[in-house]
Every structure is written in C-alpha cells, then in structure tokens.
Amino acid sequence: MVVTLALGVVVVAIILLSIDRIPTEVSSLAIVVLLVLSGLLTPREALSGFSSETAIFIFTLLALTQGLSATGVMQLVGRRLLFIARFSPQAFIVMLLVAVCIFSSVASNTAVTAAFLPVATAASAQTKVSPRRLLMPLAFTSMLGGTIFLFGTSTNLVVSSAMEQSGLGRIGFTELTPVGLPLAIIGISVTLVLMRWLLPAREGEQGAGALPQREYVTEAVLTPGSHLIGKELRYVTEGLGVPVRGVVREGAMRPPDPRGRLEAQEHLIIAGSVGDILRVKDLRSIGLSADLRIPEDHRHSHTLTEVSVPPTSALAGRSLRDIRFAERYGLVAMAIHRHPTLQGSHQHLNLLGSLASGDALKNISLSVGDLLLVGGSERRVRELARDEELTVLGSVEYQRPRYRRALLAVIIFAATVAVAGLRLTSPAIAGLAGMLAMIATGCVDTRTAFRVDWRVVILIGALLALGQAVEKSGAGEVLAQAVLPLAGVVGPRGVLCVIMIATIVLSVPMSNQAAALIMLPVGIHVAMDMGLDPRAFALGICLAASCSFLTPLEPSAALVYGPGRYRFVDFLRVGTPLTVLMLVLLTFAVPLVWPFTRS
C-alpha cells in the first residue's frame, strides 16, 4: 500500500512538473504538501530538503555567479573573443565554445548561456555568420560543460547529496571529469558537424548584420486628422504595404476587409518584420499605439532594441500592463514576437487568437522566449541590461561592470570552489563565506547577489524530499525488481543503458534534477540486486540527466530558441543523434571509470 502510494505521488509529481502553465515553484510546494498529507513523510522530513546543505550551497553558487557577472568577467572574455571574430570566424566559434565550456563547468549553465548570448549575436553581425548556426552549439556546450566538474550543474549536486543519504558517499569534485571532459569535447565537435550536415542555412538567410526577419505583432492607430480616415483598408495594405492582420472595432478584432472603410482612432493589428514595424513608425497618418505615447520632441532621441524573456524571468505569465512595463523600465514596448511553434502548440499562446478574443496587446501574458521590440533612451536600455528578468539582444552596450574587481571576483569564486571541493569545510559554509566576501569587497551589491532564481532552490528542496519518500517507502526496490529481468537478456551494460534512457526520457517533460532523483533509487537497487557496485549506476544516471538535447525545453536551449529562429524540429534533427551518441559513450565509458564489481 505504501509503495503504491509513493509511486502515485511520483506520477503526480511528473505531471505537475510537466505542465508549463503551472509555475515550477507552485508544483514543487504542492509535492511537499502531498508527501505530508499522504503520510509518506513527516513535516520535518518533508521540509528538511529546503535546509539541506545542497540547497544552501546551490543558492550561494548562483549568488557567486552573479558576482562574476557584475564584475564583467564573462563580458571581458567575450570582448577578447569579438576581437578574434574580426580575423577568423572559425577560430572565434571554437574559442567561444571553449570559453562557454570552461565557465559552465563551475557555474550555472543557464547564467553562462545568458552572459555569452549577446557576444554570439554581436559576432554574427561582424562575421556574417547566421545566429542559427551559432546559438544551438552555444546552448549545447553549456549543458555539456556541466558534466565536467561536480559544481557544473545543480543536477550533479542533488545526485551527490542523494548518494550520500544512500550510503554511497558524495561525488568528488573531479570524479566526473574522466568521463565528462571527453564527453564534452566529443559532444561539442559532433554538434558543429551535425549543424553543418543537418541544419543547413535557410534560403535567403543572412547573418545578423541585418535585423532578423522575425514576425512581430503590434497595434497601430490612425493619428488625429489622418488623411486615411474614410479610405478603404486596401489603400493601407496594398498602397502602403502595411501587413494588417485585423481591425479592432468596438472592442473586438475583425478580419481585414480590403474594401472596409477606416474610421478615426481605429486600431489596426499589424504582424510583420522589424522593417515593417519601422516603416509604420515613420508614417504620418498612422502610427504605433505605443510610439504615440512618446512626446514628439523626444522620439528622435529614442533607440530601438530587442529583448527576450529568459526561462528564469518572473515576468513570464504576466502582461505588460501587470508589470507596468513603461513605469518600471522607462521604456515603451512597441511590438512582441512569439515563436510560431509555441503559438501553434498551445491555443492560449497564439497572439492573434488572443487579440481576436478581445485582449489588447498590453494585456497578453508574456511567455518564455518572447522577444519585445522596445524603444527608449540608450541610458534606459543600458539600465535594462542590469535587470535579470529580460535579456538585451541588441547591440546596445551593457552596463559598465565593475571591471576593477573582476580579478578579485575570480579569486573569491575559485577559492570558494576549491575549499568546497576539497571538503576543507562544509560546502554550504564555504559558499556563504564566498558570497559574503563578494559583497564585502564590492564585487556585487547585496540586491544583485540575492537576485537568484529561487525557483531552482525550491525545486531542489522538494525533489530531495521526494527522493527520500521513494527510498523510505521501498518504491525504488519495487521498480528495480521490474527492471531486473532485463539483466539476463542484455547484461549489466544493457541494464545501465536502459536506466539512462529512462532518465533522458523523463528529463524531457520535467527538469534534469527531477529525472535523476526519480531514477536514482531504481538504479541503486537494480545494481545491488545484481550484486554490482551501485556507484556506477548512480553516476551514469547523473551524467545522462545532463545529456538530453532532444527539445528546446531545457533552460539554456530555451534562451537561444527565439534569437536563433529555430523550429522545434531543428532540435530533434541535431539533438537526437547527439543524445544517442552521448548515450552510447556513457554506456561504455561509465563502467570503465567506475567498474561494476568492487575490487
């Protein structure tokens, strides 16, 4: 009965964490409550994950990464790389991926991807290399870099903590390196080859020297005294070349009727490229609704830039009106772009569909990966670059980081990692000391240091409790018994491969950490029942959780999804053979480094 209950909670957890519309933190807390109400854990046991050494250390590691960003460490490296891009695009790509791999081996891969994204897009403009050929390798490299050292990804840390609870001991700081480093080198090399073979440049695709031809949606209105009032709509669509997708009249959007007469103050829904938006912006008798709110004498000094909504943004799920965008940032959101695949997969994400139902553009909830075309002064845009909720993609220079403290920040970060890795003290205490040192020396201010993605910390606390419940109830042993018959057919390596495949499959709808912690008890019990060393299975699961490249749902991949103008199928084309290759390599490499039989 207890086992059935525990497996039921696991199924519910998978469902909750797979539903995009439910915030991760809400799902995580719901899992904790469910564990207590079901009687699987006591309140103290269910909440212990939030106060665990692992959760605290992951929080401090995220804060330390903020210190590296605030002092411009990654930006300095990026500038040096941009200098190389002027002379050799190929050398730039290699050096960029090496830098990303190095940083992501000890820092959050999502943060590293976000930091190098502007560098990659700027280099695309210089080298005339399409962002489409550059950004997917950037994301995959950051994910592979996390397999090199213990602190490369939170998945390694939570698995290490769960292994210690199971009596297997923690993962050493460099224990993953003999497999993770070759995995990263081979994976990065293969990704570049696959990009050339399986993802050729689309017809008419250019480098980023010109603005990407993404379709933005915006609202335009006839200006007071416009000579267009009373004229047929086709005069605008055919004569001026304005791509009108709908006419808002009496609070409802109607399909564009070429012979329909235009009325004063009538709103037009426009869906076109940035060039289309700029052309409308310059017309006298029609203008962008948002642009008209800027005083006439200030419009010439305003600049346009593109910003994206990253996976860690608290703005996702909220509208421009809800967040009071103009008041908060001092900028005006001119238009919004949402990837066609996202609009096609979920009805509630369809921009034109939402407008047709009566919503104004400013009332539409933002989604991860959305791009906003914003206007305002360069000073305001530079200030926006300091905000973690949006990522500036344009060529506007970021805020001037505290470059003088860059070396100090690197020393503090390296010292913290060394002390924690060598276990000279508790990793949590080492992380807290490092974070305080960053703040005390002025590398980062307190507000920025604490501007971490708390959803990750909450998720990890809940997942540690879920793993404890699976182990305590004996559900891991029951699942292991179901897998055990495969041993006689495919042998130990085959069983390991099957368990790693299950981990990769689970990591598609849910987080890598969740997939690893659900499969960890199964792998440990399978190994013990077969009389093998469970450490090999545990570390195989840990590495496999970071090797799922099938979809753009992983945070690093989601960051580049919109700017790279990818389709969902692009990740399947490149990610499927790459994932299969990584799985094959792990199946043979893991037992070589961690033998199945104890010596």
TrEMBL record:
One GO CC term on file: plasma membrane
Organism: Corallococcus llansteffanensis
Bilayer topology annotation: Multi-pass membrane protein
GO biological process: potassium ion transport
Cell compartments where the protein resides: Membrane
Alphabetical list of PANTHER family matching this protein: BASIC AMINO ACID ANTIPORTER YFCC-RELATED
Chief location category: membrane
InterPro entries recorded: Cit_transptr-like_dom, DASS-Related_Transporters, RCK_C, RCK_C_sf
Protein name, entry field: TRAP transporter large permease subunit
Gene Ontology MF terms: monoatomic cation transmembrane transporter activity
Keyword Lipid metabolism: no
Residues that span the membrane, as ranges: 28-43, 55-78, 90-117, 138-159, 179-199, 406-422, 428-445, 452-470, 482-507, 538-562, 574-594
Domain RCK C-terminal: 205-286, 292-390
Entry superkingdom: Bacteria
Keywords (A to Z) from UniProt: Membrane, Repeat, Transmembrane, Transmembrane helix, Transport
